[in-house]
Amino acid sequence: MTAGPRRRRRAPFETKILLLAVLTGLPGSALGLTLLWIGPASPKTQWTLTLLVVGMWFGAAFVLRERIVRPLQTLSNLLGALREGDFSIRARGARSDDALGLALLEVNALSEPLRNQRLGALEATALLRTVMAEIDVAVFAFDGDEYLRLVNRAGEKLLGQPAVRAMGRSAEELGLAMCLMGETPRTLDAAFEGGAGRWEIRRSGFRQAGLQHQLLVISDVSRALREEERQAWQRLIRVLSHEINNSLTPIQSIAGSLRDLLRHDPRPADWEDDVAQGLDVVRGRSAALSRFMASYVKLARLPAPIPGPVEVRPWIEHIAELEPRLRVTVVPGPDITISADGDQLDQLLINLIRNAAEAALETGGGVEVGWTMNGQYLEVRVLDEGPGISNSANLFVPFFTTKPDGSGIGLVLSRQIAEAHGGSLVLANRDVGRGCVARVIIPIQ
Questions:
Q1: Which pLDDT score, from 0 to 100, does residue 128 have?
Q2: Measured between alpha carbons, how far is 274 from 282 in angstroms, rounded to an integer?
Q3: 281 phi and psi, to 5 degrees?
Q4: What is the 3-state secondary structure (H, E, C) of the chain?
Q5: Which candidate, 130, 77, 140, places its Cα nearest to that of 108?
Q6: Which distant-in-sequence residues (6+ apart) come within 8 Å of 43 by Cβ?
Q7: Which parts of the chain register pLDDT below 50?
Q8: How far is the C-alpha of 154 from the C-alpha of 165, rounded, in Å?
Q9: How many CB atoms within 10 Å of residue 221?
Q10: In whole angstroms, what is the distance from residue 319 CA to residue 347 CA?
Q11: Residues forming beta bridges with residue 197, ordered by sequence position
């Protein structure tokens, strides 16, 4: 078996410089020594001068080697300090009128931006660690094999164990494997060592050292949902109490007056008329309370949409013709068909056109309905020339109305219908002219 060729070992840079310096002085030294030895000088003088010439020759070569190698060593030390993060060292002899000084000057100048960058990175890392520690959501980082590489304080609390024990363990062992699967974001009812409830799961990918990792964020939404539920109950009870008291107070007062009237002896000659009028008031207030409760049931029991084909042009033209108090102008749009619940869309548009007509009748203006297609969405606009919106804060508050005979659920019901179809309803004052514009956005599919 024949051994392969040996790799030639290269001489160090310092040796090459020394040999180059020796070879540079070789012609002159050789010429001088030749002339010395062929001359008439005595052997003692020849040997003395030979040693002097050779000594000066090699001495100059070593001095030249040091003058070249020493600045390179200085540059190496400076770059090594920069690599280690020490930005306080500066090179002497930095100047711009020669090549070596210019190199040293550039290295010295390089240390300042590197120091600023490192300081900024350290401050950003410290801020990130503080935010990670104080944020009220659990943050986990898993590598490509689903082993835990990072966890914050909220994550430790969720796992019920410190980071020292959790680091390096798999998502399966930590009970988080289900959070690394499925769609994101999503809500999940789950129980962990640190608590149970409803959680929002969010995932995203990132790379570290060229390897793929997953960032998992788990936030507890139970507390927020409970707070929203509490506020919703408070608003509902406030509205119900207001409406019920508005009906019960006159009923109670009239009932007391009728009782006193029946106990009076002798009774007045027109007591029967008084009783009849009192009962009419009781009946009227009871009917109003019954209508209010029916409106609440209608709002609370909106069924899920049953999708079907709806041709937009006939739908809008038909609903516009149903308004009896004024003529509704229809601005034609593209001929498109959407998938939606036709009955619910009828109710939505009827409510919007009715509100627009009532506003326009106050000022003697008109009502206009049009539609456009924006990508994968249908936008329906209902414009009126009424007085506009003076206070938008209560537009979608259930049972709030400024109309004497209004129920206060029309806009709320319309927005629920739009959102049930994956869309939205927005009301605002018109940019040009007086009046209001209602925009309904509904996905075509």
A1: 74
A2: 12
A3: -65, -45
A4: CCCCCCCCCCCCHHHHHHHHHHHHHHHHHHHHHHHHHCCCCCHHHHHHHHHHHHHHHHHHHHHHHHHHHHHHHHHHHHHHHHHHCCCCCCCCCCCCCCHHHHHHHHHHHHHHHHHHHHHHHHHHHHHHHHHHHHCCCEEEEECCCCEEEEECHHHHHHHCCCHHHHCCCEHHHHCCHHHHCCCCCEEEEEEECCEEEEEEEEEEEEEECCEEEEEEEEEECHHHHHHHHHHHHHHHHHHHHHHHHHHHHHHHHHHHHHHHHHHCCCCCCCHHHHHHHHHHHHHHHHHHHHHHHHHHHHHHCCCCCCCEEEEHHHHHHHHHHCCCCCCEEEECCCCCEEEECHHHHHHHHHHHHHHHHHHHHHHCCCEEEEEEEECCEEEEEEEECCCCCCCHHHCCCCCCCCCCCCCCCHHHHHHHHHHHCCCEEEEEECCCCCCEEEEEEEECC
A5: 77
A6: none
A7: 1, 393, 399-400, 404-407
A8: 15
A9: 14
A10: 9
A11: 190
pLDDT score, position 371? 93
> For position 407, what pLDDT does the model report?
46
pLDDT attached to residue 370 = 92
Matching residue, tokens 């009126």: 384
For the chain, what's the residue count? 445
